[in-house]
Amino acid sequence: MKTRILSVVAILILTATALQAQVEFGVVAGPNFQNMVGKDADGDKLTNGMIVGFHAGVKANIPIAPDFYFQTGLLLSQKGSRNNEGLIPVKAASDEYNTTTRISYIDVPLHLLFRPEFGSGHILVGFGPYVAVGLFGSQDVDYGSSVPTMEQKIKFKGEITNDEFWQMDNAYYKRFDAGADIFVGYEMSMGLWFRLNAQLGLLNMISDITDYEGEANLKNTGFGLSVGYNF
Fold this sequence. Notes:
Elements: H1 2-22, E1 24-39, E2 51-65, E3 68-82, E4 98-114, E5 117-118, E6 121-142, E7 150-156, E8 159-160, H2 162-165, E9 170-173, E10 176-187, E11 192-201, E12 208-209, E13 217-230
Protein backbone atom coordinates (compact mmCIF):
# COMPACT_ATOMS: atom_id res chain seq x y z
CA MET A 1 0.00 0.00 0.00
CA LYS A 2 2.78 2.41 0.92
CA THR A 3 4.49 1.69 -2.42
CA ARG A 4 1.28 2.47 -4.33
CA ILE A 5 0.81 5.76 -2.49
CA LEU A 6 4.39 6.78 -3.22
CA SER A 7 3.91 5.86 -6.88
CA VAL A 8 0.75 8.00 -7.16
CA VAL A 9 2.50 10.95 -5.49
CA ALA A 10 5.46 10.60 -7.84
CA ILE A 11 3.17 10.55 -10.90
CA LEU A 12 1.33 13.66 -9.70
CA ILE A 13 4.60 15.52 -9.10
CA LEU A 14 5.94 14.57 -12.53
CA THR A 15 2.66 15.58 -14.20
CA ALA A 16 2.57 18.96 -12.45
CA THR A 17 6.24 19.56 -13.32
CA ALA A 18 5.66 18.72 -16.99
CA LEU A 19 2.58 20.95 -17.18
CA GLN A 20 4.40 23.84 -15.51
CA ALA A 21 7.24 23.46 -18.00
CA GLN A 22 4.80 23.79 -20.92
CA VAL A 23 2.81 26.78 -19.63
CA GLU A 24 3.94 30.07 -21.17
CA PHE A 25 3.86 33.23 -19.11
CA GLY A 26 4.07 36.72 -20.50
CA VAL A 27 3.35 40.41 -20.09
CA VAL A 28 1.05 42.61 -22.17
CA ALA A 29 0.16 46.31 -22.47
CA GLY A 30 -1.45 48.72 -24.89
CA PRO A 31 -4.14 51.35 -25.51
CA ASN A 32 -7.91 50.85 -25.23
CA PHE A 33 -10.46 52.70 -27.36
CA GLN A 34 -13.58 52.34 -25.24
CA ASN A 35 -17.20 53.39 -25.28
CA MET A 36 -20.39 52.67 -23.33
CA VAL A 37 -23.32 52.06 -25.67
CA GLY A 38 -26.99 51.57 -24.90
CA LYS A 39 -30.41 53.19 -24.67
CA ASP A 40 -32.07 55.75 -22.45
CA ALA A 41 -35.23 55.15 -20.40
CA ASP A 42 -37.40 55.89 -23.47
CA GLY A 43 -35.63 53.29 -25.56
CA ASP A 44 -33.73 55.82 -27.69
CA LYS A 45 -30.16 55.01 -28.67
CA LEU A 46 -27.51 56.94 -26.75
CA THR A 47 -24.84 58.69 -28.80
CA ASN A 48 -21.70 58.49 -26.70
CA GLY A 49 -18.08 59.03 -27.71
CA MET A 50 -14.93 56.98 -27.25
CA ILE A 51 -12.17 57.57 -24.74
CA VAL A 52 -8.58 56.41 -24.97
CA GLY A 53 -7.56 54.27 -22.01
CA PHE A 54 -5.02 51.51 -21.44
CA HIS A 55 -4.57 47.92 -20.38
CA ALA A 56 -1.57 46.17 -18.83
CA GLY A 57 -0.93 42.94 -17.01
CA VAL A 58 0.19 39.33 -17.19
CA LYS A 59 -1.08 36.31 -19.06
CA ALA A 60 -0.57 32.56 -19.34
CA ASN A 61 -0.96 30.14 -22.26
CA ILE A 62 -1.88 26.61 -21.16
CA PRO A 63 -1.59 23.97 -23.93
CA ILE A 64 -4.67 21.78 -24.41
CA ALA A 65 -4.04 20.31 -27.90
CA PRO A 66 -1.59 20.82 -30.78
CA ASP A 67 -1.71 24.55 -31.68
CA PHE A 68 -4.58 25.18 -29.19
CA TYR A 69 -4.23 26.88 -25.81
CA PHE A 70 -6.36 28.07 -22.94
CA GLN A 71 -5.31 31.69 -22.33
CA THR A 72 -6.00 33.56 -19.12
CA GLY A 73 -4.39 36.27 -17.01
CA LEU A 74 -4.93 39.43 -14.99
CA LEU A 75 -5.23 42.85 -16.66
CA LEU A 76 -5.71 46.32 -15.27
CA SER A 77 -8.00 47.84 -17.90
CA GLN A 78 -9.45 51.35 -18.15
CA LYS A 79 -12.90 51.67 -19.73
CA GLY A 80 -15.57 54.34 -20.06
CA SER A 81 -16.99 56.88 -22.52
CA ARG A 82 -17.98 60.49 -23.06
CA ASN A 83 -21.49 61.94 -22.60
CA ASN A 84 -23.23 59.37 -20.48
CA GLU A 85 -24.02 61.57 -17.46
CA GLY A 86 -27.73 61.36 -16.79
CA LEU A 87 -28.11 59.19 -19.91
CA ILE A 88 -28.53 62.29 -22.06
CA PRO A 89 -28.32 61.27 -25.75
CA VAL A 90 -26.13 64.11 -27.02
CA LYS A 91 -23.12 64.03 -29.31
CA ALA A 92 -19.67 63.84 -27.76
CA ALA A 93 -18.72 67.01 -29.66
CA SER A 94 -21.38 69.12 -27.92
CA ASP A 95 -19.91 72.35 -26.51
CA GLU A 96 -22.68 72.78 -23.95
CA TYR A 97 -22.52 69.50 -22.11
CA ASN A 98 -19.68 66.98 -21.99
CA THR A 99 -18.79 64.23 -19.57
CA THR A 100 -15.85 61.87 -19.49
CA THR A 101 -16.15 58.65 -17.52
CA ARG A 102 -13.12 56.51 -16.71
CA ILE A 103 -13.42 53.29 -14.70
CA SER A 104 -10.51 50.97 -13.95
CA TYR A 105 -11.22 47.23 -13.87
CA ILE A 106 -9.38 44.02 -13.20
CA ASP A 107 -10.13 41.91 -16.29
CA VAL A 108 -9.79 38.12 -16.29
CA PRO A 109 -9.81 36.73 -19.87
CA LEU A 110 -10.90 33.12 -20.44
CA HIS A 111 -9.91 32.58 -24.05
CA LEU A 112 -9.40 29.76 -26.52
CA LEU A 113 -6.23 30.54 -28.50
CA PHE A 114 -5.37 29.02 -31.89
CA ARG A 115 -1.62 29.49 -32.49
CA PRO A 116 -0.34 27.70 -35.61
CA GLU A 117 3.12 28.24 -37.05
CA PHE A 118 3.43 30.77 -39.85
CA GLY A 119 6.81 31.66 -41.24
CA SER A 120 9.27 31.98 -38.39
CA GLY A 121 6.53 32.80 -35.88
CA HIS A 122 2.89 32.08 -35.07
CA ILE A 123 -0.49 33.44 -36.10
CA LEU A 124 -2.70 34.29 -33.11
CA VAL A 125 -6.48 33.87 -33.33
CA GLY A 126 -8.62 33.75 -30.21
CA PHE A 127 -12.01 34.31 -28.67
CA GLY A 128 -13.84 33.74 -25.43
CA PRO A 129 -15.49 35.37 -22.43
CA TYR A 130 -14.06 37.75 -19.89
CA VAL A 131 -15.11 38.76 -16.39
CA ALA A 132 -14.18 42.06 -14.76
CA VAL A 133 -14.36 43.76 -11.36
CA GLY A 134 -14.49 47.55 -11.03
CA LEU A 135 -11.82 49.03 -8.77
CA PHE A 136 -12.13 52.81 -8.94
CA GLY A 137 -12.90 55.65 -11.31
CA SER A 138 -14.02 59.21 -11.85
CA GLN A 139 -16.42 61.16 -14.01
CA ASP A 140 -15.67 64.71 -15.18
CA VAL A 141 -18.70 66.87 -15.94
CA ASP A 142 -18.20 69.92 -18.16
CA TYR A 143 -21.17 72.29 -18.45
CA GLY A 144 -19.35 74.78 -20.68
CA SER A 145 -16.64 77.40 -20.51
CA SER A 146 -18.51 79.55 -17.96
CA VAL A 147 -18.72 76.79 -15.32
CA PRO A 148 -15.72 74.93 -13.83
CA THR A 149 -15.45 71.23 -14.62
CA MET A 150 -16.80 69.09 -11.78
CA GLU A 151 -15.28 65.73 -10.85
CA GLN A 152 -17.52 62.99 -9.51
CA LYS A 153 -16.19 59.91 -7.74
CA ILE A 154 -17.34 56.55 -9.10
CA LYS A 155 -19.15 54.42 -6.54
CA PHE A 156 -20.17 50.82 -7.17
CA LYS A 157 -23.66 49.74 -6.11
CA GLY A 158 -26.14 47.36 -7.67
CA GLU A 159 -29.13 49.44 -6.58
CA ILE A 160 -29.43 53.09 -5.57
CA THR A 161 -32.17 55.45 -4.41
CA ASN A 162 -33.48 58.33 -6.48
CA ASP A 163 -31.69 60.74 -4.13
CA GLU A 164 -28.38 58.97 -4.72
CA PHE A 165 -28.91 59.19 -8.48
CA TRP A 166 -29.16 62.98 -8.27
CA GLN A 167 -26.14 63.41 -5.99
CA MET A 168 -23.53 65.65 -7.58
CA ASP A 169 -20.51 64.29 -5.70
CA ASN A 170 -20.83 60.69 -6.91
CA ALA A 171 -21.72 58.70 -10.01
CA TYR A 172 -22.99 55.15 -9.56
CA TYR A 173 -22.26 52.06 -11.63
CA LYS A 174 -22.39 48.32 -11.09
CA ARG A 175 -19.10 46.78 -10.05
CA PHE A 176 -19.12 43.56 -12.10
CA ASP A 177 -18.86 43.30 -15.87
CA ALA A 178 -18.70 40.36 -18.27
CA GLY A 179 -18.70 39.89 -21.99
CA ALA A 180 -16.84 38.45 -24.97
CA ASP A 181 -13.49 39.09 -26.66
CA ILE A 182 -12.15 38.28 -30.12
CA PHE A 183 -8.62 38.95 -31.35
CA VAL A 184 -6.07 38.34 -34.12
CA GLY A 185 -2.34 38.91 -34.12
CA TYR A 186 1.14 37.63 -34.83
CA GLU A 187 3.92 36.36 -32.59
CA MET A 188 7.55 36.65 -33.67
CA SER A 189 10.10 33.92 -33.05
CA MET A 190 11.76 35.95 -30.28
CA GLY A 191 8.52 35.89 -28.24
CA LEU A 192 7.40 39.45 -29.04
CA TRP A 193 3.81 39.64 -30.30
CA PHE A 194 1.20 42.13 -31.48
CA ARG A 195 -2.55 41.82 -31.33
CA LEU A 196 -5.77 43.64 -32.30
CA ASN A 197 -8.76 42.79 -30.13
CA ALA A 198 -12.43 43.75 -29.87
CA GLN A 199 -14.55 43.54 -26.72
CA LEU A 200 -18.31 43.51 -26.25
CA GLY A 201 -19.77 43.84 -22.77
CA LEU A 202 -23.00 41.94 -22.08
CA LEU A 203 -24.03 43.36 -18.70
CA ASN A 204 -25.85 46.62 -17.98
CA MET A 205 -23.46 48.82 -16.02
CA ILE A 206 -26.08 51.30 -14.74
CA SER A 207 -27.11 50.87 -11.10
CA ASP A 208 -30.79 50.01 -10.69
CA ILE A 209 -32.84 52.88 -9.24
CA THR A 210 -35.40 52.07 -6.54
CA ASP A 211 -39.04 52.62 -7.63
CA TYR A 212 -37.96 53.56 -11.17
CA GLU A 213 -39.61 51.84 -14.12
CA GLY A 214 -37.23 52.97 -16.86
CA GLU A 215 -35.07 50.46 -18.72
CA ALA A 216 -32.00 52.53 -19.54
CA ASN A 217 -28.80 50.58 -20.08
CA LEU A 218 -25.12 51.07 -20.86
CA LYS A 219 -22.65 48.34 -21.82
CA ASN A 220 -18.88 48.50 -22.17
CA THR A 221 -17.59 48.04 -25.70
CA GLY A 222 -14.46 48.88 -27.64
CA PHE A 223 -11.24 47.63 -29.15
CA GLY A 224 -7.57 47.70 -28.30
CA LEU A 225 -4.03 47.22 -29.54
CA SER A 226 -1.71 44.99 -27.51
CA VAL A 227 2.03 44.43 -27.44
CA GLY A 228 3.28 41.50 -25.41
CA TYR A 229 6.23 39.27 -24.72
CA ASN A 230 6.30 35.57 -23.83
CA PHE A 231 9.05 34.47 -21.48
